[in-house]
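REQUEST FORM: STRUCTURE PREDICTION
Request ID: SP-0412
Submitted by: Lab K.M.
Chain count: 1
Length (residues): 653
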Amino acid sequence: MCSVLADIVKIKITALEKEHDEILKKIQELEVVQIESEKDGGEEIRSHIVSGLDYNIAELRFALDFIALYKPPQKGIKKFLESGIFISRKDAIKTAESFDYQTVVKESKDLEEQINKRVNLIDKNNSEINILRPWHSLNIIPGKELPAGYKISFILLSEKSVDEFSDNISRDLPFSAFEKTNIENQELYSYVIHKEEDEDKLKALFETMQVREMELPKLDMGVSEYVENLNNKIKESSTELNDLKKEAGKLSRHERELKIVHDFLSWQKMRAENEQKEGKTNSTFTIYGWIDKENIDELNVSLAQITTLYHIEEIGANDEEVPPVKFKNTWSKPFESVTSLYGMPQPSEPDPTPFLAPFFTLFFGLAITDAGYGIVLALISYLAVKIFKIPKEDRGLFGVVFWGGIASVVLGAVFGGWFGVELSKMPGFLRGPLESMQILNPLENPIAILYLSLVLGIIQVLFGLGINTWWQIKKGKIKSALLGSGLWLIGLISLLVFAASSGGLLPVALAVPFKYLTLLIAVGIVVSKWMAEKNKLLGLPIGVLGLYDVVGYFSDVLSYSRLLALGLTTSIIGMVVNIVAGLAMEMPFVGWLAGLLVLIGGHVFNIGINALGAFIHSGRLQYIEFFPKFMEGGGRAFQPMKMESKYIQFNEK
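STATUS: Completed
RESULT:
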């Protein structure tokens, strides 16, 4: 079991300026060097280059987003696979350097402008139609000149007030004409032709009777004819809009090349950003960075293919520099994703990944305890990687779920969990084999599962203390190991043996010697803390109070009881889903369909919610109860300059 982090060392690469671009490209391609910042004299120029690349990348993103809006829809599995581009590095670079992406970007911008123009015109015409629609029966042309001294007011008033308003007009404004046009929603659309000298009286009447005056556009034709013209314009614009959208959709033939160029420019940007960290003279450049010691030979061989005039020197980090951290796991590599969620260990700490992997897998299985669900989880995670061709660096979570699913299959079979179905109700040909695999029924004997959870908690807590002791001894801190975690490890084991023998679980003869051993260890803990304190007067009470840590350890162990609750929850919800589905199937005619929907929906929900809970709580036990026993965390991840891609996946082995 490998628990040691990669040996990250600091190096200095010096070469001729004329070889700079090729060397930087090669370092990026190798993905083994994390470049560190050094002062340089060309930062402003190179910052300008970064800004230019940012602009070009933004242009490409615009074009890709625009094309995505109008490209023909993909169906079936093709829809999920369309964004993946599998290509060699050589072909990707060749495509990016030869493709005229700026022409496509310009076409996208032009089409967007034309599309927006048509959309705005349609919206404008529709808005005008909505204003004029209630006036379709108007028998005059808005804006047409009236006889000298006369004006027209278009108004909107309540239908209930029409007669009163008409009477007022006839009585107070005898030289005015009130015409009704249309009634909608109990409101009358109408107009009044009046003398200019009567305008103040009319305004006063409007205010008194709460009449709203409307503003209509000046037209050179009747409203109905004008609206018809607007509708024709909308149809014409809609046809043009559809044609433009089809043209935009045709640009999707360039989508693959645009994505390749996008990633190509992203690589250039990363090189330009790292170039700002270099040291330079007129004829040479210097790169400072971190590298896994195992990769130095590979770097030497690769740079030698470019030039012989270079030098790689391993240099010591100064006191203020903390090397980045890189994992070097094999079988437990998927579980690095679990460790990373907590944070990276310090370079001086062990890698917790291989230690947590078996515990996390076991706890995940205990939280599910259903073999059927485990098969589904393992199958989904396996197929997802194969079908969607997920890159190796992104498979961590899928690997964790896969192994968690396998653990769920094994533990589910042991506990008799198969999609929440009681084994007694299984078909005869399945009942026998499944019952032969079952050892324990959690619903009938939950206390046994509780004891199992607590025992696993005890094992992991003690294991964490053991790791701490072993690691400190490995680092030469023997005294610190034996007087710290070593004492607690022996003391807790002694206390457990004393308790078990006193309770009859172990031979009673062990009780007395282990009682005295526990007391002796307790004295040792007090003395060690007392000796560690500079103020000896305060050291003794601090040492005595240190014994209270035993409560913390047992509190940690009790946290593992959550595994019982999670496992029972999965089983009970699964059984409830089956019961409800059975009741639904008794419905006439559509019962089979309703029952099927309940079964599928209920079990999918149960798998999803409990898989999430299993992951979260299994992780919590590692982060809160296990990791603090031997690591503080807070390290920074090793991040080499690489050809990081959003769309491309290299198909080289």
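NOTES: The chain has 23 helices and eleven strands.
Reviewed by: T.R.
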